Amino acid sequence: MWIWVLSLLGVVGAGLAAGVLFGVALANVPGFAAMPPSNYVRVHQSFDRRYEPTMPILVLGAALADLVLAMVADPVAARVLFALGAVLLVVVALVSQLRNVPLLASSVRRVDPDRLPPVWIDPRPRWRQWHLVRTAAGVAAFAVTVAAVINL
Questions:
Q1: Where does the sequence pass through the membrane (predicted)?
Q2: What residues does each domain of the chain span?
């Protein structure tokens, strides 16, 4: 019974994370690119307050569920797929914390949108690039987690 509960948590967590990341890539990223810098900073600051700490908890919770299932699920194919799902979710977390978050720390989170520094460095192109990497990893994590559950 608890394997099915963990499976549900893994699938729902990975699915929600992939969906949020995909939605941001589909709608927010192009919208950010079209905004003047001060509007972009203001909007991204607003979004960040809503995504933190929900997304890290969601991603790491799903990764933990997949990791536990990778150790106990049967058959071996399911274990391998759960392990791959966990690794892909850890990639999402690492890209977020080591690439996307640092880009925003200095150029978005700590600035006043009405008083941007004269040498403000626009993070949008690099942030977009890393966001697409974590989106691909998140969607792949969801797909392999679903495949793992199918193999139970």
A1: 80-98, 132-150
A2: 2-150
pLDDT in tens, 83-107: 999 999 999 999 999 999 999 998 9
Dist. CA 142–CA 25, nearest whole Å: 16
pTM attached to this predicted model: 0.94
The CA-to-CA distance between both ends of the chain, in Å, stands at 12
Q: What is the 3-state secondary structure (H, E, C) of 53-104?
A: CHHHHHHHHHHHHHHHHHHHCCCHHHHHHHHHHHHHHHHHHHHHHHHHHHHH
Q: What are phi and psi of 117, to 5 degrees?
A: -60, 150
Of 49, 53, 62, residue with least CA distance to 19:
62
Burial category of 97 from C-beta neighbours within 10 Å (exposed 0-12, middle 13-18, buried 19 and up) = exposed
